[in-house]
Amino acid sequence: MGFLELFSVASFPVIKVLLLTAIGLLLALDNINLLGKDARNQTNHLVHYVFNPAMVGGNLAETITYENVVLLWFMPVNILVTFLLGSALGWITIKLTRPPKNIEGLIVGVCSAGNLGNLPIIIIPAICQDKGSPFGDPDVCYQYGMAYASLSMAIGAIFIWTYVYNIMRISSSNVQKEGNESSDSVTLATSEDVSESPIEGCSENINSAYRLLLSKNESEQEVKVRIFDKIMHKCGMILDNPNFRGVFSPATLGAIVGFIVGVVPKLHSLMIGSNAPLHVIEDSASMLGDAAIPITTLIMGANLLKGLKGASTPFWTIIGIIAVRYIMLPIFGVVIVKGATHLGLVQVDPLYQFILLLQYALPPAMAIGTIAQLFGAGESECSMIMLWTYALASIAVTLWSTFFMWLVS
């Protein structure tokens, strides 16, 4: 296929994304307010807990087998490389542009974490269903493309909530420590005075004497209760930790279920296929999963409205982030993926190679905004960065998708 034909194939998915994003932005305007803050929160919960797990689990269960899992081992490695390279380039961007301290973690986050879930799941079906697609039969392309994109979403969520989450957490805590040094010193001096007071010393002696008066059985029971309470408290802290909940997000749990159903032959034959006894479960999951793509795109457009009202972000910092995401990372991606293919580490599947390459040329993950909200660091700046990176994605993703399709076809 010629370059212009490939360009038209690559442009249609991006145009669809832009149209749905524009509708979401329109629905979020104050005059209309159909996707206001409360509506976005509720819809986000539906997508997060219902639609995404159904889509990810259903697609993986239908297409993933034990043989496929062995062949797809390079995708987690490839995603990890995108995060590490993006972090290094983000650190260089910070050194060159010297942004405010409070958004340094945010810059590393947006440079390292791409939108590995929503955009591939939107782009791949549109490319597969186009008449000029270079990936062969539309049904086969759609089936395997959605499985690859679903796997990308699940792995990306794990890396975002383990790697990027902790980078932004550490950066936010460091900024807070620097800002509270004077108050910390006053608090420390006060606490030292209190600790040396005779009343506290007396209370400690009374407590120790009381323990000596306890009977042996009572003290043993007290110790057992305390150990049990500590264990339950630790378990509660782990389950309530956003880092833990992010790793085992509903989409990740859906991916795990889909893997199990796909890899175990008996479960696969029981649930997958028109002749399967329990195929109604697969049909129900597919019906729910089909709603994820349009709703997610509308919410993405509504979230970008905050960027129009956000605080100003340093101009050269935004330019640096755009250069990292749309110039440097895709170039590195071509070298890495083609090198791995040449060494025999990646299967000779044009669609699979295309998705591996696409993972280097995507705008920042929308989950970065959630993490920024969680720590209260750079929320308005994050909205501004998202606005510009997603506005330019219409050009950058189209051009890189065209080049990637030409490269693998």
Task: Give structural notes.
- The protein has 20 helices and no strands.
- The longest helix has 42 residues, at 138-179.
- The chain has helices spanning 3-27, 37-63, 66-71, 74-97, 104-112, 118-129, 138-179, 181-195, 198-213, 216-240, 242-247, 250-263, 265-271, 279-289, 292-303, 305-309, 315-342, 350-358, 367-375, 379-408.
- The radius of gyration is 25 Å and the shape is globular.
- Helix 1 runs antiparallel to helix 20.
- The protein has one domain (3-176, 241-408): Up-down Bundle (Na+/H+ antiporter like fold).
- With 409 residues, it is mostly helical.
- One of its GO terms (biological process) is auxin-activated signaling pathway.
- It is a multi-pass membrane protein.
- It is found in: Endoplasmic reticulum membrane.
Give helix and strand order, one letter per element, not per position: HHHHHHHHHHHHHHHHHHHH
Number of domains: 1
Given as residue ranges, the uncertain stretches (5+ residues, pLDDT < 50) are 194-203
The percentage helix is: over 70%
The CATH topology is: Na+/H+ antiporter like fold
Number of beta strands: 0
Quick description:
Belongs to the auxin efflux carrier (TC 2.A.69.2) family. The protein contains 20 helices and no strands. It is mainly alpha-helical.
